[in-house]
C-alpha cells in the first residue's frame, strides 16, 4: 500500500486517515465515511461541496519516523505496551448545504507534514470540481503521486 501524509491507497479507492479506524474512502462513485470496515455513511459526489481536513500538522518533514522511534525506545525501556494511540483529527463534509463533522484517525503520533495535508486538500477539491477525473480513484497510487507533486509545489511556494 502506498501512503503519503493522510492519504493511503487501498483497493479501488483512496483512503484519508487510518483505514483500520475512522477514515474516508473516496471511490469513483461516492465518498464513504468508515470506522474500520463498517460504513458510517455514504455521500454521493453530486451535491458534495467540500471536504475539509482538520488534523495536526508540523513543518518537520518526517514526523512519523520520529514518533515511531521515540515510542519504540520507550516501549523497549519499559518492556510494556504504552497504549499510546494517535489522537483523532476530524473531517468536515459539506453536501447539499449541510455539514457533517466526523472523527478522522491518524496513522501515527504527532502531526502530518504540513505540505502533505495541503496537497491532499487540493487533490480532494480538484476531484469535487472535476467529475470526469474521479475514475482515477480506481487507481489511487497515481493520485497519491499527484498529491505529492501538489505538496512539493506548496513547499516551494512557502520557501520562496
**Distance between the terminal alpha carbons, to the nearest Å?**
33 Å
Task: State Rg.
Answer: 16 Å
Tell me what portion of residues adopts beta-strand conformation.
25-35%
Succession of helices and strands: EEEEEEEEHEEEHH
Contiguous runs where pLDDT drops below 50 for at least 5 residues: none
Percentage of residues in helical conformation: 25-40%
| Most strands sheet | 6 strands, antiparallel
Read across the widest sheet, the strand sequence of neighbours is 1-2-3-4-5-6
Structural class: alpha+beta
Alpha plus pi helix count: 3
On the 0-100 scale, what is the average pLDDT? 84
| Basic shape | globular
What are the key terms here?
alpha+beta; single chain; 160 residues; 3 helices; six-stranded antiparallel β-sheet; three-stranded antiparallel β-sheet
Amino acid at each position: 500500500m502506498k501512503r503519503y501524509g493522510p492519504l493511503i491507497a487501498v483497493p479501488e479507492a483512496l483512503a484519508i486517515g487510518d483505514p483500520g479506524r475512522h477514515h474516508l474512502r473516496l471511490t469513483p462513485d461516492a465518498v464513504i465515511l468508515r470506522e474500520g470496515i463498517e460504513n458510517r455513511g455514504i455521500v454521493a459526489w453530486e451535491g458534495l461541496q467540500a471536504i475539509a481536513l482538520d488534523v495536526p500538522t508540523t513543518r518537520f518533514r518526517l514526523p512519523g519516523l520520529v514518533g515511531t522511534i521515540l515510542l519504540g525506545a520507550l516501549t523497549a525501556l519499559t518492556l510494556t505496551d504504552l497504549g499510546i494511540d494517535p489522537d483523532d483529527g476530524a473531517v468536515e463534509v459539506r453536501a447539499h448545504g449541510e455539514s457533517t463533522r466526523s472523527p478522522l484517525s491518524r496513522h501515527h503520533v504527532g502531526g502530518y507534514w504540513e505540505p502533505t495535508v495541503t496537497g491532499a486538500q487540493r487533490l480532494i477539491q480538484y476531484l469535487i470540481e472535476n467529475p470526469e477525473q474521479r475514475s482515477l480513484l480506481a487507481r489511487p497510487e497515481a493520485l497519491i503521486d499527484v498529491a505529492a507533486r501538489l505538496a512539493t509545489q506548496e513547499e516551494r511556494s512557502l520557501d520562496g
